């Protein structure tokens, strides 16, 4: 019986297919244990499951194998989610495939009974606080310093849990996040292969003259055991005729008719050994991997043509401010061209998504009637972003607007610079940001905070700060707020870029990093190690 077991912190997909394609007969029996809203008479919002993962997997396999002897089935798949699992989500999934449904039902029933008794996975606690979805009064304009970046990121990540994965053709997977771990059906490479054009001989053959007994091209498969004094002409990529061979480069050999004289042997064998990259059954790629071009090539090599990946996100972005005019319009005195729509649209290119963008008038009542037209987009959005109106000015209504749309405001002030009046709100699984309107604040807040939410929703690993040397002296006066400076990261280190104010877009064209300057830092010399985030 084919058995697949996975303990995962990711949501379990809504649709799971049997491993074999069933013909006219046979059954695929599925069980889903879903977290319910009540635990021991109390209302809960989530359950936290913990496990000893290796022991749990070993025990599940042992149970399945012993049951397979009693109730012969074709395949079984057990997925158990661990960590915090919200109400309504699947905690355990068991799928059993069999030729006759009776066998699958019997196996599943016995398995579920034994699972409870023998497997070290347990409910660690019930989560009673509501992480999201409760409508509350908007927070009063925050006073005081506000949250640190680490506190803000923790809140954003807690509320941006991975959305269920979807199975897509490989051609549509670029830029998504892999949501299953992919294992190798065969060794990589599948056989010993030459890395050179030359002559294959026994690894320790001391002879100088060799008889050329065969010629192999890249696609040839001609196994034969070589004897001492025998050589096979091989091309780069040729499958070797047997194991324990070395390849002498053709430049190190002299061919004479059907014989070849070896002039020089390198230390290395010039052979990619069978299974040296990955053994059959080994992990090709882990869940949570960003599918860049290289990762896509690896999935293609492994024959993973329909991976489970993060869904394409749905994003709604509103700009605000009566001074804003479209880029194609000449601004009158007092007006400025909208650069944030272009900035956000292009920053989002890295995350496969559908983006709806529109502009709102700077009058709350008018804005409410404008957004009514986007009701379904907002309801279906994973992320809502509002540019501008995030501070406490008379006309700044982003907080009220988000509350009007049912978002609970989680925070609305940070101890960072630029970007202090950032608003973060949550409504069910949807998250919303109110970004301070200045383009530099937008750039910083997107990379630090919006990207953290997008990565969380996609099930990607969190971004980490890197370390690098300053290319120039940084002699800004100490500031009580943590500061993020747009910078250019290159061979000589990090060059902080000049900007006159957070409205200054000129530095953004050059910026590919944000330097993190901790609160109250003294000036730093060139060469000092600083943390930075690639941007
Ligand atoms: P606010 O956050 O609405 O107070 O805006 C702060 C600054 O950002 C103001 O100078 C705005 O004119 C500017 N701003 C707001 N929205 C945009 C936008 N879409 N494009 C360029 N600048 C903007
Ligand atoms: Mg404004």
Key terms:
9 helices; binds adenosine monophosphate; 535 residues; 31% strand; alpha+beta; binds magnesium ion; six-stranded mixed beta sheet
Could you characterize the architecture of this molecule?
- This protein is of the alpha+beta class and 535 residues long.
- The chain is 20% helix and 31% strand.
- It has 9 helices and 35 strands.
- A hairpin with a 2-residue loop joins strand 29 and strand 30.
- Helix 5 (340-347) packs parallel to helix 9 (439-458).
- Adenosine monophosphate binds at residues 319, 321, 323-324, 336, 338-340, 387-391, 436-439, 503.
Quick recap of the structure?
The protein is an alpha+beta fold and 535 residues long. Helix content is 20%, strand content 31%.
Count of discrete alpha- or pi-helical segments spanning 4 or more residues: 9
Which residues form runs of ≥5 with pLDDT under 50? 130-142
Ligands present:
adenosine monophosphate, magnesium ion
Structural class: alpha+beta
- How many beta strands in the DSSP annotation? 35
The largest sheet, given as strand count, sense and whether it forms a barrel, is:
6 strands, mixed
Kindly state the percentage of residues in helix.
10-25%
Instruction: Please state the average pLDDT score.
Output: 92
Strand content: 25-35%
- The largest sheet has its strands arranged as 16-13-15-14-18-17
Note the gap between the termini. Answer: 48 Å
Radius of gyration: 30 Å
Task: Draw up the topology in text.
Layout: E1 2-8, E2 27-34, E3 38-39, E4 42-43, E5 46-51, H1 53-70, E6 75-81, E7 83-86, E8 90-98, H2 101-118, E9 121-127, H3 149-159, E10 166-167, E11 182-183, E12 193-194, E13 198-202, E14 209-215, E15 230-234, E16 245-249, E17 253-256, E18 259-262, E19 271-272, E20 283-285, H4 293-301, E21 308-309, E22 313-320, E23 324-325, E24 336-337, H5 340-347, E25 353-360, H6 364-372, H7 375-380, E26 383-387, H8 398-404, E27 408-411, E28 416-417, E29 423-427, E30 430-435, H9 439-458, E31 466-469, E32 482-490, E33 493-496, E34 513-517, E35 529-534
Parallel strand pairs: 1-6, 14-15, 22-25, 22-26, 23-24, 26-30, 28-32
Antiparallel strand pairs: 2-8, 3-4, 5-7, 5-9, 6-8, 10-21, 11-20, 12-19, 13-15, 13-16, 14-18, 17-18, 27-29, 29-30, 31-35, 32-33, 32-34, 34-35
Helix pairs in contact: 1-2, 3-9, 5-9
This protein binds adenosine monophosphate and magnesium ion.
